[in-house]
Specification:
- This protein is an all-beta fold and 153 residues long.
- The chain is 0% helix and 39% strand.
- It has no helices and eleven strands.
- Strands 3-4-5-8 form a four-stranded antiparallel beta sheet, with no helix packed on it.
- The protein is globular and about 50 Å long.
C-alpha cells in the first residue's frame, strides 16, 4: 500500500509504501481500506482487508497512525494482523459491544459470514467471532452492524 500526502499549494509527496500484513503466512491481495481513529489519539489509523485467494482465511491488518508532537505525521507503525473469514470483501467500524471503543466488522463472501473483532483496552483486537448471515456477504459499501448486536467480549 502506498501513501501520498497532499502538499500545501497542490500536488503530493512521493509515495511511502507500507506492508499490509504481518505474520508468517500472509493472505495477500488487499481489497478494502478503512481510515478511522482506532486508538482514540486523534490521528487516523488504517484497517486493510486482505482477501487472499478465497481458499484460505483472509485477514485484516491495523496500521496505527504515528503521532509526533501531538499530531499525525502521515506515517504508520508496522501492521498487526488478525484472521477473518474466507474471501473478505468489505469493512466497517462501530462500537458493537458498547464499551466506547470502535470495533471492526468484516464481510466474508465465501463462508456467508461477518467477522467481528472487538477492541481491547490496549487497542489490540480479540479473535474473530463469525456469526453467519445466511446469504452471500457482497455489500461493497461496507458491513452492516445490525446483524451482530449483542455480541459480548
Amino acid at each position: 500500500m502506498a501513501i501520498l500526502l497532499g502538499k500545501v499549494g497542490g500536488g503530493f509527496t512521493p509515495p511511502v509504501t507500507y506492508a499490509t500484513e504481518s505474520g508468517a503466512n500472509p493472505a495477500g491481495n488487499p481489497v478494502a481500506l478503512l481510515a478511522t481513529d482506532i486508538d482514540g489519539d486523534g490521528v487516523l489509523d488504517l484497517s486493510v482487508v486482505n482477501q487472499g485467494n478465497g481458499s484460505v482465511a483472509g485477514s485484516v491488518s491495523i496500521l496505527l497512525g504515528h503521532v509526533l508532537n501531538g499530531k499525525g505525521d502521515g506515517t504508520f507503525v508496522a501492521p498487526k494482523t488478525y484472521s477473518v473469514g474466507f474471501k473478505p470483501t468489505a469493512i466497517a467500524s462501530a462500537d458493537i459491544n458498547g464499551d466506547g471503543r470502535p470495533d471492526l466488522v468484516i464481510t466474508n463472501q465465501n463462508d456467508n459470514s461477518v467477522s467481528v473483532l472487538l477492541q481491547n483496552p490496549d487497542h489490540t483486537f480479540t479473535a474473530k467471532v463469525d456469526p453467519t448471515t445466511g446469504k452471500k456477504s457482497r455489500n461493497r459499501y461496507g458491513a452492516s452492524s445490525h446483524c451482530c448486536l449483542g455480541i459480548q467480549p
